[in-house]
Amino acid sequence: MAENAADRGTTSGGRPTARPDLAAMVVPLGRALMAAEQPVLDAHGLTMWAYTVLLYLDETPVRTQAALAEAIRADKTRIIAVLDDLEARELIRRQPDPEDRRVRLLSLTTEGRRLRDAAQAAIQEGEERLLSRLPAADRAGFLRSLHTLSGLPELTARKPGRGPSRT
Amino acid sequence: MAENAADRGTTSGGRPTARPDLAAMVVPLGRALMAAEQPVLDAHGLTMWAYTVLLYLDETPVRTQAALAEAIRADKTRIIAVLDDLEARELIRRQPDPEDRRVRLLSLTTEGRRLRDAAQAAIQEGEERLLSRLPAADRAGFLRSLHTLSGLPELTARKPGRGPSRT
DNA sequence: TATTGTTATACTCTATAACTATA
DNA sequence: TATAGTTATAGAGTATAACAATA
Predict the structure, then answer these.
(1) Number of folded domains in chain B?
(2) Which of A119, B6, B64, B88 is an S-S bond match for A150, by CB 3.0 to 4.6 Å?
(3) A151 touches B5 (CB < 8 A)
(4) Which domain of life is it from (chains A, B) (predicted)?
(5) What nucleotides of chain D have any atom within 7 angstroms of a protein Cβ?
């Protein structure tokens, strides 16, 4: 999607374009933000998927692994190893539902919540440094626009999606 | 990287967060924008990589394939099939450099330029529809911020990168 | 010997299919 | 028979290594 166009307001040949393609700016920015998260997650012993799970589980238990997978746009088979690890480290609980023993009830442990909060705080601290480079007026519009566009239904249409991995 | 946090200003458990992680909004937005480009590119018979190449080649010839690959953050082996196809369709020229016959000089053909312009016009038309959903004031700040952040050196640090594919 | 482009191979991540256990 | 979870297999996409041509 023509990432490089991001650096140019005009093409290398001088043909004037009103602006680079939106995706050509947004996608590389997203990659950069993920790359910036990586060392923080490493320091907390979390993969991107694990962090995603911790963020989503939050204080509210989730009734099935399939529901969790759907919610975070992952394949249900893809999160199993992640849950195995998080459970082994006692960051989440995975208890069989007494009412339907096929189901595993998922919830955060205190330690899981603590780790998630610590990781998120560190991540957002780094993001603040980036946002501080923006004029205050632009920054507000940027965040509001991100929120708006992220929530647009025509952009949120469900597809499996590659998920958080960023090899 | 916790895409879902994008839909929430607060977590499901009620813990108030100032905002979702930046990456949790930007990355899904980037995926959505790429997905929106896809049908347009299909209609023009272009893959995302091919479009990226056409955008970069522009009117200015590039001296080596390796330089092109580096510029668009692709592996040099990855673009060969793309160049093969574009050349076969006479959208680009790939001529051995008389001064160093190891080198292939790359340039756009007239038809290649025409196709690129048509595709980009259609893509940006679709993007305008999205941007029109934003308040005029926010929109300006959004685009300016995107430009600024995309150009930030600490975010542009070169890494191979997965490139434009979005399976 | 070093470099450009190419081909062949291996690796990573993801999705699909097959299996177990509960219902 | 249908569903939740799991395991095993296969498929994309990418990177690495080996190669041919030219310098």
Answers:
(1) 2
(2) B6
(3) no
(4) Bacteria
(5) 3-8, 12-17, 21-23
- The answer to whether the CB of A93 falls within 8 A of the CB of B49 is no
Is residue B28 situated within a structural domain?
A: yes
Same-domain pairing of B58 and B109: yes
Domain range for A58? 20-153
How far is A26 from chain B, CA to nearest CA, in Å? 5
Render pLDDT for B36-57 as a digit per residue (tens, 0 to 9).
Answer: 999 999 999 999 999 999 999 9
- Residue A99 CA to residue A76 CA, distance in Å, equals 22
What dihedral do alpha carbons A61, A67, A69, A70 form, nearest 10°? Answer: -130
Report CB contact under 8 Å: A138, B130. no
Q: Record the tokens describing residue B133, joined without a space.
A: 């959903």
Beta carbon of B83 within 7 Å of strand C? yes
Residue with tokens 């993007």: B127
**Cβ distance of A4 and B56 shorter than 8 Å:** yes
**pLDDT at position B164, please?**
53
With respect to residue B160, please indicate whether it lies within any of the assigned structural domains: no
Residues 6 or more apart from B81 whose CB is under 8 A from it? none
B38, amino acid identity: Q
B141 pLDDT band, cuts 50/70/90, is: very high
Q: Could you report the per-residue pLDDT of A45-74, keeping only the tens digit for each?
A: 999 999 999 999 987 789 999 999 999 999
Instruction: Give the separation between CA A132 and CA B151, rounded to whole angstroms.
Output: 15
